[in-house]
Write a structure and sequence with these properties.
The protein is α/β, with parallel strands linked by helices. The chain contains 15 helices and 13 strands. The chain has two domains: about 210 residues, Glycogen Phosphorylase B (Rossmann fold, 3-Layer(aba) Sandwich), CATH 3.40.50.2000; about 180 residues, Rossmann fold (3-Layer(aba) Sandwich). Helix content is about 40%, strand content about 15%. Strands 3-2-1-4-5-6-7 form a seven-stranded parallel sheet, with helices on both faces. The longest helix has 21 residues.
């Protein structure tokens, strides 16, 4: 009998390592350890044409196991949807001659969602189980009008296809698990995982003054003021807290990674003057994944705030996962499943959303000694909260149930 195989298909960029790629890679590691041959069909966000992709060197780490497609989730990309579909089906048919494909897992879609129906039907025809791996339920309020309409349509179609054809669902949160819940359909909750021990720098250095860090993309950069409804992260609220601390003479350092000062104040103009004069708040713009993890590890606390909405309740912050995994406690409000994985007062310090209370909470953290902060980080590093070993058995049981 041919080797059993799993094919992961979706909007993840293994070459440029976007957030989605790390989630998929870590789930793929579990699948490999469970004995499956794992193949990937993903996209390259920097290429919009098939010829561009074909000129790239093969990724040695995924040699022979990766079909790389151009990024076509654009208005122009609509006309390339049929080409994407043909290449995916051709790739699956080719693999089928060499392997026993038992699972096809879709993570969103590598192009417009119409392709998912064709993939689901291929699974049905070839006795492979169609599994949905869902990590978010996005909203597109900050997008320009036409793109907002198109993206809402493609995601609505995706939900309908997935709910109808999925043989099983892997969710990152309880909210998504409930969203896709269907009697007799197996499901499992697996948050984003972390498996990059080579990037963990031990021992920790001691920061003389407490270092807080925000890392991420708080909102879509539009070149104009952004309204709160269009924000994934309320970085503006965190800046408000830090400005208040600075005004009462508290010593700290706040590092912002993922957005430049120029882009931030263009979108949040009310902070332009105060940030230009700040001696404690620093913007670093985009950093590589490795650089961001190193900065996260060197910080004393990762800080964030999210308003409650469909997107934030359904998702699970990868920066929470990465911070805990490199030994950095999280300062954040209670949103979604976050505090299911955090221990209040040690790995997680809860913000209330009330400015005066939150300023006092952060002030108390600033008053802790450097040795106490270092001890907390060392203890947290040992937790293994998001290690792949912890989720191997749940995923194995889920797959067994799907094939039962």
């Amino acid at each position: 009998m041919n080797q059993q195989a799993v094919v992961y298909i979706g909007e993840f960029d293994l070459r440029n390592e976007n957030v989605q790629a790390h989630l998929v890679k870590n789930n793929g590691k579990i699948l490999s350890q469970l004995g499956y041959e794992v193949f990937y069909i993903g996209t390259n966000r920097n290429c919009s044409d098939f010829n561009e992709v074909e000129r790239l060197e093969e990724l040695s780490v995924f040699s022979g196991h990766f079909l790389e497609l151009p990024h076509t989730l654009t208005m122009v990309g609509l006309i390339k949807e049929s080409q994407i579909e043909k290449r995916i089906i051709s790739y699956l048919n080719d693999l089928k001659t060499k392997y026993n494909i038992v699972f096809v897992i879709t993570y969103q879609a590598p192009t417009y969602a119409i392709v998912l129906k064709r993939i689901a039907l291929w699974c049905k025809d070839n006795k492979a189980s169609y599994i949905v791996n869902c990590a978010d339920l996005p909203v597109f309020d900050s997008q320009v009008f036409l793109r907002r309409i198109v993206m809402n349509m493609t995601w609505d179609y995706m939900y309908r296809i997935n709910k109808r054809y999925a043989d099983g669902v892997i969710s990152v949160s309880r909210y998504i698990d409930t969203f896709y819940k269907k009697i007799d359909r197996p499901s499992v909750i697996i948050p984003p995982l972390f498996d990059e021990p080579d990037l963990i720098d031990i021992p920790f250095r001691i920061n003389e003054i407490p270092v807080f860090i925000y890392a991420g993309t708080p909102f879509v950069i539009t070149g104009q003021e952004v309204k709160a409804k269009g924000m994934k992260d309320r970085l503006d609220k965190i800046v408000d807290l830090m400005v208040s601390l600075e005004s009462i003479g508290i010593e700290f350092c706040f590092q912002v990674v993922g957005i430049t000062l120029h882009d931030y104040v263009t979108c949040i103009p009310r902070h332009r003057v105060v940030l230009n004069n700040s001696k404690h708040i620093f913007f670093y713009g985009q950093k590589t994944h490795k650089e961001t993890l190193q900065m996260l590890q060197k910080a004393d606390y990762m800080i964030n705030y999210r308003d409650g909405n469909l997107m934030t309740e359904a998702g699970m912050s990868t920066k929470v996962v990465e911070s805990i995994s490199v030994g950095t406690p999280v300062v954040m409000n209670k949103i979604g499943d976050t505090f299911l994985y955090l221990k209040e007062g040690s790995s997680g310090i809860m913000l209330t959303g009330h400015k005066d209370e939150d300023v006092q909470t952060i002030k108390k953290l600033c008053e802790l000694s450097a040795e106490v902060r270092k001890t907390n980080k060392n203890d947290l590093l040992k937790s293994g909260t998001f290690s792949i070993d912890r989720y191997m058995q749940p995923l194995a049981e889920f797959l067994k149930a799907v094939r039962a």
